[in-house]
Structure formats: C-alpha cells, structure tokens
Amino acid sequence: MARKINQTSIIDIDRTKPFDPIPFPGEVAPGFLSGEFWSIGKQDKRSLRLTTLDISNIHLETCKTAFKNRLVGMKILAYYSDNGYTLLDAKILQFFWENKNLVPRSWKRKRGPFNTPYIFFPGTVFEEKRGGHVIACLHWYNGKLYRGIGLFEDTRFIHHSLIVLAVLQPDSFPVLPRILPG
C-alpha cells in the first residue's frame, strides 16, 4: 500500500510475513532462490525493522567509492553498513515487484546510451550452498520490470557503472517511521 503525504509517497511494508523467495513470481526461473540452492544469509536489521518508507528517501548508491578503496564482495556491504547506510532488504524489492506502478521514474532512466541501472537490494544476502553470495535486483528494460540476481564476489560486476545499491543514507531516515520493536 502507498499513500501521499505532502506530495511524498509513503509505502507500507508488510512485515507480518518474512520474505519467502520460493513463491516469489518473476521472469527468472521459478524458485530461482529456492532452498535447494540458496538460503537467506545476512540481513540488515535496520531495514528489517522498517514498516513504512518514504520512497523519495531511497538513494541509489554506486559501488565506485568502495571499489576505489579496493573493497570487493561482502566487504562493500560492510563498508556501507559501517558508515551508517541502511541496506534495503528483499521484502522492499518484493513490494516494488508487486507494485510496479510505484517504481520511481528515476529508476527507469538510462545511465549512458543503452541501459537503465540494475538496482540491488543488499539488505538481504542469499548464500549459495557451496559458499557464494548473491543479491536480488530489479531492472527496467524496454518498458518492463525484470528481477534477477548478481554474484557479489565478481569484481567486474561491482565495478560496472550500472550497478547501484538501494540504500537509505545515514542522514535520511524515513518520514513517519513505524519501527518494529527489537
């Protein structure tokens, strides 16, 4: 659900049911994050406590700063988390997947001549049974929203200018936050 308050879109995130990747519909093969291959590993506790969120506070952060500091893989997520960023989780990705009309226009804009960004929700990291880490993403292409996953240990992936992380910056806490206890 979303509502407007002073021209700001506030979304409600249903935390009564945890994110379950198995029935999550999409163009990727059904069960692409099923328990057979992946499990939910690390999650950002600050993001999991959000039950409302001002969409305008979501910042798309490139990995370039962390990459310049020679950070790769999970160290990039630790860098942003340690610097006060809230890494938005897969339940927020699910909200946008189920409410495509609420995806901000800026997420659909091309970055360069060919592509729109791949928007990763790093507050939920999926662990492969053999030890790899992936993060789920959304991508707008030819007027249609897609979702996918990215292997976060791949430095080519992280250095790409179209890879962005959906985060809340340290000084931009959501308007009218309702936070679950804990």
Q: What can you tell me about this protein's structure?
A:
The protein is α+β, with helices and mostly antiparallel strands. It contains five helices and eleven strands. It has helices at about 45-50, 65-70, 75-80, 90-100, 155-160, and strands at about 1-5, 10, 40-45, 50-55, 60, 85, 120, 125-130, 135-140, 145-150, 165-170. Strands 3, 5, 6, 7, 8, 9, 10 and 11 form an eight-stranded mixed beta sheet that branches. Strands 1-2-4 form a three-stranded antiparallel beta sheet, with no helix packed on it. The longest helix is centred in the middle third of the chain and has 9 residues, at about 75-80. The chain starts with a strand and ends in a 14-residue tail after the last strand. Mean pLDDT is about 75; it is low at about 25-30 and about 175-180.
H and E order: EEEHEEHHEHEEEEHE
What structural category do the secondary elements indicate? Answer: alpha+beta
Shape: globular
Termini separation (Å)? 24 Å
Strand content: 25-35%
Q: In total, how many beta strands?
A: 11
Helix content: 10-25%
